[in-house]
């Protein structure tokens, strides 16, 4: 309808133009045709006059014009010839046909014939007047024409005057003996002109119609092309797809996209997440899609560690991305979490079945603790998991170590956890969430005892390429163990792809890339990417945080920082994959490059001790300490030290305080599955200030594109990013931070778990339907 209206807007002026054209063209055409016909009638008259000339001259010279009557009557049989008369040289009408107007004198006829438009209006219609000289030979003259009558003849033309020089002298030359007046009927011209006018109008109308039709079709096609083009641009096509918008849209495409992006950003910020994933929604999903089935989580690290302290037992929260992510999910889902009881007071708080309700004071779910002997812990955790699998998967230039004894311990502990899962299961088909590289063999072990279980394994660290993985002596066993899972999750598509290629290289399995599934020994595993995240702090939680200025004051006081200082923080486990040395080098380079920041830039590195029983970790810690000392000795001034290395465990509240106090957060992992520190920093900054410097080798870099993304191996680039962060205006910080916050809020950990659990729900439904169909077939 809109298109039609638009087209009318175009067609109306077109129609008016055509009418105007017709208005001008028709009279013009009339005039032209009339002139043509008049010329035509003149020549026709000459023809007729020539034909009659001899007979007329003869009759005139004989002085018997009445002899012409029959001749004239015959001649006017021609429908176009209206009347004929013959005038003598004295100007009298000597003979005429009946229709010849009585009041038309020869002189007037001659005068009319001399006009450009020799037209005479009569009562019955208009006639064309033509006068033609009739010449005769003087010798043949029997009765000479009287001089008086010759004198009465007006001079018609110079040739006629020449012929009348001496009418008496006998001459062989032809002389004028009279004039033929021919009146041609003009009505047929009128008729023709009317016809022409009709044809012309018809032609203009058809032309108009044709132009209108073509216009409408072209307009429709272009309109559709435009609309489709604009729609494609709005869908984001043409950026990466080969479907380019129409060329005429090209000049606007960038503007259009930029405006759309701005609008989208604005909308997202105003509306909040499209679908708000909360703990409540996850609980609902469990009840609807998983029919309230039991959820069992298995991980090595426990979410709460009970330790003996000077004032009695204290509860600690470990520094672990895994725990940060899975704990809120368990609080929402209830169920049982099976983990290694590693705290010094852990045994003192459990019941007879080694269970304790957590979180302390809330008891939302049960923590079932598994006790490991020091040998088991050494072989399975320190040995195979952290000296073998961890460096194997991170490819961070630390060689993996594989010992047979570690492998044996790993198998044995995996079996012990599998037995615990079977013992905790209240049905034959619980939902089991297996966490991380400590339990690669667990899925197949559980599957052996609980074939109906839905086993979701999530690999929290990267998965290497097949060549790197190939150095593991037990690569086939590890892959087979993992393929006991119903769903196998990684943070990124890239890691999924690496895993599928590894299976393809080392196992006889059917891989369906299109569905992202692997069929191995008649069992199918879905391999999917589920980017992990954090629990987004709700308003009540955020309201309880101390104000930003207060956090800054407390941190400055504790660390005795100069009054005016840019504060950057790094918060990690003391692990060689985190790029701590690289970021210290970058701080050093920054102070070299921009010495005006000496005394005004402080970097605080929190490094929670981890796996300290391993040489690699101890020597790494020593190296970091040495480098810190060296840089501090270079740039320290009285009352100022550029780097503060805090090698202690910090509880979540203390970490949050640091995040809120900081101007910059530095995450420079050399390789990281996701990295949740950067997401926690963003969540802590409800003032929408602060700059995130983020390694491109952390999975988070794919989502958090508004951070300053760096290659931590490139010291110069990282130093420049620190400088840029230190100088970033508040408005730019706000713009970037607002966008980062809306991403993390939307893609929170409940969404991560929700996506996995709904995939599991669909999988279980499919399995149940297949079983029913099988039973029907058998019955
Ligand atoms: C990080 C990794 C996890 C891993 C955990 C182990 O958080 O992202 O994948 O499970 O470290 O740390 P831990 O101290 O338990 O060895």
Automatic annotation (TrEMBL):
Belongs to the glycosyltransferase 20 family. GO terms for biological process: trehalose biosynthetic process. Pfam families: Glyco_transf_20. Residues 148-169 are annotated as: Disordered. It comes from the Bacteria. Residues 148-165 have a biased composition (Low complexity). This is Trehalose-6-phosphate synthase. The chain crosses the membrane at residues 6-29, 199-223. InterPro entries: Glyco_trans_20. GO terms for molecular function: alpha,alpha-trehalose-phosphate synthase (UDP-forming) activity. Keywords: Membrane, Transmembrane, Transmembrane helix. SUPFAM superfamilies: UDP-Glycosyltransferase/glycogen phosphorylase.
